[in-house]
């Protein structure tokens, strides 16, 4: 990526968006990389973050508005001009504090600086029309799927699936929540401290928090950068969404158990399992990607945990590697479409498609089968995803239980929608292997 050191905030945002739109970069990674590499002030960083996330979140609506202002199809517009128009239209339509004139002039200036000076008149004309016309009247769209898709900026195929699965009201609430800002949530490491003490320690470092909505181990950051705190460096907490905490809680662990985390990287749930076991017993953290296993090791080291071992293997082969009935607990936090975390990672909604979901559900079932084989009788198997998509959730669990109805019983199945607790959307299914505990 081009060095961003001398770029203006808008030029920075344009480069990041260009990578996300045309090179399939992940917005959060591209943003972190660019901001670390730039000499922008904190205020400018916040502006860049807002423009990047906002433009991606509202993409559908922005493209629709831009399409209305042009004679030729918007999709045929030059790549850079497309990005400039999208991010400038976002500022015009959704950022109240940016004066209209500034959004237009800066868009034109960006075209000049980014090698598209010949199109500055075009950019100017389109943005003036957008400013004059504003947002469309969504009420005039009679089809509910089309209306939700356009008004809340989600792909139509996804809205159709969510309406079918959960109904119009739940779908709309979910889509609206996906447009909000995501919180940063912390999980207290109870092996080192307790929630009140951590809250006070963070406050002394200028970081304000409030108690979470779902988990007694969670704090929500309301002000400040917890990442750079001394409490983080010494392992007093980890970053984790509250829904993820519930997954580990559903595994119902205790000290001394032998636990397999089949898809473990970057280790958020692994480390919580070890903490809940008082770091006594064994937690085997498996992931298919070696580079991701290193992330688990970093967290384990930071938290000072000794009960975790990492391993790199395709989880669909676990039944070949281990004897049957080896582990007391098995967690399958499966690779999934991630459609429950769209609020924090908005590009997911544009990058995912129905074909990928089909492939994922086949993989999920294969992993679940292999993982179930290595679980001891009486043990708990938890299957979870950070998505809300029946094909990857209920249908995977139902297919598994249909085949194993004599050997597995369903204990608890829960979908958490992002709008319920302001957390990530998650699916959690806890099952028990029949037979006596050994
Ligand atoms: C949802 S993430 C796990 C998140 C993790 N449990 C946590 O809480 O930090 C799914 C993980 O599955 C891994 N994965 C994908 N395919 C896999 C496979 N066939 N076998 C094992 N791991 C796999 C991915 O590398 C990814 O890290």
Automatic annotation (TrEMBL):
Annotated SAM-dependent MTase RsmB/NOP-type domain residues: 174-438
Gene Ontology terms, MF aspect: RNA binding; rRNA methyltransferase activity
Main location: cytoplasm
Top enzyme class: transferase
Annotated active site: 386 (nucleophile)
Phosphoprotein listed as a keyword: no
Gene Ontology cellular component terms for the protein in this record: cytoplasm
Signal peptide residues on this chain, from the entry's feature table: none
EC number per UniProt: 2.1.1.176
PROSITE patterns: NOL1_NOP2_SUN (PS01153), SAM_MT_RSMB_NOP (PS51686)
InterPro entries to which the protein is assigned, alphabetical: MeTrfase_RsmB-F_NOP2_cat, MeTrfase_RsmB-F_NOP2_dom, NusB-like_sf, NusB_RsmB_TIM44, RCMT, rRNA_ssu_MeTfrase_B, RsmB-like_ferredoxin, RsmB/NOL1/NOP2-like_CS
Keywords from the UniProt entry: Cytoplasm, Methyltransferase, RNA-binding, rRNA processing, S-adenosyl-L-methionine, Transferase
GO BP terms, alphabetized: regulation of DNA-templated transcription
Classification via Pfam families: Methyltr_RsmB-F, NusB, RsmF-B_ferredox
Organism superkingdom: Bacteria
Its biological purpose: Specifically methylates the cytosine at position 967 (m5C967) of 16S rRNA.
Family: Belongs to the class I-like SAM-binding methyltransferase superfamily. RsmB/NOP family.
The protein's name: 16S rRNA (cytosine(967)-C(5))-methyltransferase
Organism, as annotated: Natribacillus halophilus
